Amino acid sequence: MSDSTTFIDLVRHGRVATPGLFCAAINEPLSETGWAQLMTTTQTAQTDQVITSPSRRCAEFAQHFAQEHDLPLQTANAFQEMHFGDWVDLSAAEVWQQDSVLLKSLWESPQDFTAPNGEALLEFAERVEHSWHELLEQYGGKRVLVFTHGGVIRVLLALALGIPYKSTMGFDLGYGSAVRMRVYEDGAVSVYGVGVRDLS
User: Fold this and answer.
1) Which domain holds residue 93?
2) Taking a C-beta distance cutoff of 8 angstroms, is the pair 154, 194 a contact?
3) Which residue from 136, 171, 120, 129 is spatially nearest to 150, judged by alpha carbons?
4) Is residue 189 part of a domain?
């Protein structure tokens, strides 16, 4: 394997403290279960750099992990979840009750989706992709561990595999799971793990 190969582990945050939320607010903490999920997944992780979304459900564990392993930590605002506007802090049931038609469009035609007073999915994808390229430029040839969100990971899967965002809905990205990627010197990307629960 070339020394210029970059290894990226994208870890979805664990379960949050408030059950049943469609999308948590930025200050929502992890539950004890969520913390344990991340401890299990990262128990044997090897990395040179830790990157985190600023959301509390990612950042608190990322800070713990970086301190525990004496690693540098960077906060990447662009790796926050898509902003769901008026739906933030509502339960999935409440969102369904308020606007089932719009919610269905997120799964059926995500390229056209924008939550009420929220961020368009295409704008969200653009900011994530831009930050991804910056990450590769800055950390080429290193091992990088990123604590982020399900939507961010789906954008990067779509980019890596050359598939529509909608097609990533078939991947199981449970709380605390990871996606593993290799990025080669020529820019080619291989995905060698989806829904991983052990980063050994």
Assistant:
1) 6-196
2) no
3) 171
4) yes
| pLDDT value, residue 69 | 97
Q: What is the pLDDT of residues 84-117, one digit of tens each?
A: 999 999 999 999 999 999 999 999 999 999 999 9
CA 36/CA 58 separation, integer angstroms: 13
The answer to whether 11 touches 178, Cβ cutoff 8 Å, is: yes
Phi-psi region of 39 (alpha: psi -120 to 50; beta: other; left: phi over 0): alpha
Single-letter amino acid code for the residue at 166: K
CATH number of residue 177's parent domain: 3.40.50.1240
d(CA 183, CA 149): 20
pTM score of the predicted model: 0.96
Helices vs. strands in the chain: H and E counts, helices first: 5, 6
| Across 26-34, average pLDDT | 98
Q: Which two tokens stand for residue 74?
A: 């960077």
Please report, as a single letter, which amino acid is at residue 159. Answer: L
| Domain count for the chain | 1
Does residue 188 belong to any structural domain of this protein? yes
SS3 3: coil
- Does residue 112 fall inside a structural domain? yes
In a domain, 1, yes or no: no
Position 32: which residue type? E
Encode 10-28: b = buried (16+ Cβ within 10 Å), e = exposed.
Answer: bbbbbbbbeeebbbbeeeb
